[in-house]
Amino acid sequence: xxxxxxxxKPIDRAKALVTLRNxxxxxxxxxxxxxxxxxxxxxxxxxxxxxxxxxxxxxxSLTARAIMRLTPAAxxxxxxxxxxxxxxxxxxxxxxxxxxxxxxIGMIMQDPKxxxxxxxxxxxxxxxxxxxxxxxxxxxxRVRATDMLRAVQIRDPERVYNMYPHEMSxxxxxxxxxxxxxxxxxxxxIADEATSALDVTVRLEILSLLDDLVKTRGLxxxxxxxxxxxxxxxxxxxxxxxxxxVVETLLAADLDRAQHPYTQGLLASMPRIxxxxxxxxxxxxxxxx
Length: 289
Known about the structure:
This protein is an alpha/beta fold. 32% of the residues lie in helices and 23% in strands.
């Protein structure tokens, strides 16, 4: 059962930054055969903020990793199309993918503590990411990294350049990750639960930063989250995923007008300050989904 609300204009294929058609991902089963984790996912990404929402295990992160070809070795990826601009990622060699990752598409992970090297200062890690994709001297890379620290609104970037990840707060660590992903100026950015580990104030600062980068640099952002209220306020469009499928696509501003019972169930299960309930609704699942 799948529904789509087409209240926004379809993205022109020629202007799409990412085009995904009929993506299927499966894994081998201990009982034999294969288990489908993502089934028939299709969407286009323009210069916008596209939210992907769903429960844990619905296939959100796996879909994003498939675009970057970062799925586990046991995964079997099948798709009609996976395009990054005019590049067909299905026919791209692993060597070329190494040049594409970071240079044309980047991913911000959930927790910088597990993504940053603890024994290398953060500035050097940003500079290294730049030198991998752009031929430059160490001094040029250092200047570029310092400029990126300043761009993500870190005060005294020259001092922070020489600091180590354990000296960073959660918000600063996430800004470092954003700087590292943007230093080579990719056109597409994937944020996988990038704000879930942050407190509310820092989260708003990071979201404001991402919003500004999308507007000023013309990025395409895929924003993966469990937080429907956050996606409603921050994103332009939303894909709702359930059990590996996209069951509904709609404008973020129209989330309250969702038609699919799964989306309606997710919305109904959230607490509301202005309409308190003694007991929150429990999602009733239908095998037809």
